[in-house]
Amino acid sequence: MFFWVLALLILCGFLWNYKRQLKIADITDKYVFITGCDTGFGNLAARTFDKKGFHVIAACLTESESTALKAETSERLHTVLLDVTDPENVKRTAQWVKNQVGEKGLWGLINNAGVLGVLAPTDWLTVEDYREPIEVNLFGLISVTLNLLPLVKKARGRIINVSSIGGRLAFSGGGYTPSKYAVEGFNDSLRRDMKAFGVHVSCIEPGLFKTGLSDPIKATEKKRAIWKNLSPDIKQQYGEGYIEKSLDKLKGTNSFVNVDLSLVVECMDHALTSLFPKTHYAAGRDAKTFWIPLSHMPAVLQDFLLLKQKIELANPKAV
């Protein structure tokens, strides 16, 4: 009996893996729109999908990065300047995309644009510190999606939302993790709403990657700028050497940082081209072996492991 059960499980695993490898027939007539193509995941995705034969429309924030991207790619790739937080800019871009794709519609929408914002203890922050990452990562993503959604429905295509392990576990104070938690919720509701239209919606949850978004120097500069304006009481509670001690603590986690950005782009590729795309993709060794498994654990275990990375406060009773 055990042998037959084992054989059935092996067969099911084989069929499941085979199913995941089935690809769409033709990509040379399909259009893909990608936000956040100045650097990082979006830039690599634009260059990769251009080489594969897609008609890529790459949205960049700056003229210089747009020009650099066009110089490295084929004539099929078009760039457009886009600030996802500007509603009028998003509407104009959507109309331009509509004119480009015509009756074919838009096969792929990859919502990749994002910012980290300030990562700091919650009692250091103001509402304004939360506003930027939420405006870009959440409302910008929703705005682009809603404006391009009719074109994706026309093509019965794919929507890929780049979230983060920060959408599964709140690893730091600031607006980044709330924005990514909200992206996860929007992604799930959109996926269910679009199912009847034949549109597949996938969410990618990258772990810690070495990109411009996660530049430790910029993150530290922002934290120090906030420290200067903190009240004497809070400075006394945390202690003058808090930021430096935090940086020393983080040096031990460098081995968890992924440097191969193609791990994320491979997830995008599968979500775009597979006949049976996944609903969620974990990208990066740390995401698969630590963050995602931990997100399913009891809160007491999550708190224990994450608080071990925190610095002991100088005088928390000084309130």
List keywords for this structure.
319 residues; single chain; 11% strand; Rossmann fold; alpha/beta
Query: Can you summarize the main beta sheet?
Result: 7 strands, parallel
Count of discrete domains: 1
CATH fold title: Rossmann fold
Order of helices and strands: HEHEHEHEHEHEHHHHEHH
Helicity range: 40-55%
Oligomeric category:
single chain
Would you identify the CATH H-level superfamily? NAD(P)-binding Rossmann-like Domain
Which structural class is indicated by helix and strand composition? alpha/beta
Strand content: 5-15%
Structural notes for this entry:
It is a single chain. By secondary structure, the chain is of the alpha/beta class. The protein has one domain: NAD(P)-binding Rossmann-like Domain (Rossmann fold, 3-Layer(aba) Sandwich). 52% of the residues lie in helices and 11% in strands. It is built from twelve helices and seven strands. Strands 3-2-1-4-5-6-7 form a seven-stranded parallel beta sheet, sandwiched between helices. Helix 5 links the parallel strand 4 and strand 5. Helix 2 crosses helix 10 (262-273) and helix 5 (127-155) runs parallel beside helix 6. It is globular and about 65 Å long. The chain starts with a helix and ends in a 12-residue tail after the last helix. The relative contact order is 0.12.
